[in-house]
Write a structure and sequence with these properties.
By secondary structure, this protein is mainly α. 37% of the residues lie in helices and 5% in strands. The protein contains 2 helices and 2 strands. The longest helix has 26 residues, at 87-112. It starts with a strand and ends with a helix.
């Protein structure tokens, strides 16, 4: 088998017979989850946000990602959680949920009396 080697503009040798591996997955290997993730990533890219979960950030409809501020969100652009919200937003929302739960318990207790 013969290989045709060329030289690139930078002077390095290039093997012209070997094509780079394709990053695409064969359609038969795609699962519904793969398609959902691809659509989420496409929506994030189209909206110009760092993750799919960040799309509703400006409306307050997002849920903060617990991992992005720790530096290890493995989902990247496909993450269904917001990469714009910081850790303080997560804490603020948690306190808000606790206050709401307390108020609901008080309201239920008063209704039972």
């Amino acid at each position: 088998q013969q290989h045709s080697c060329g030289t690139s503009e930078t002077g390095s040798t290039v093997d012209a017979t070997e094509a780079p591996p394709s990053p695409l997955i064969a359609p038969a290997e795609l699962t519904p989850e793969d398609l959902d993730e691809a659509l989420a990533v496409a929506a994030a890219v189209a909206a110009g946000v760092p993750s799919a979960g960040s799309v509703g950030h400006h409306l307050g409809l997002c849920k903060p990602c617990d991992f992005v501020d720790r530096g290890f969100c493995r989902a990247g652009a496909g993450c269904r959680f917001c990469h714009i919200c910081g850790p303080e937003e997560r804490r603020r929302r948690k306190l808000q949920r606790r206050k709401l739960a307390r108020a609901e318990r008080r309201a239920d207790a008063q209704a039972d009396e």
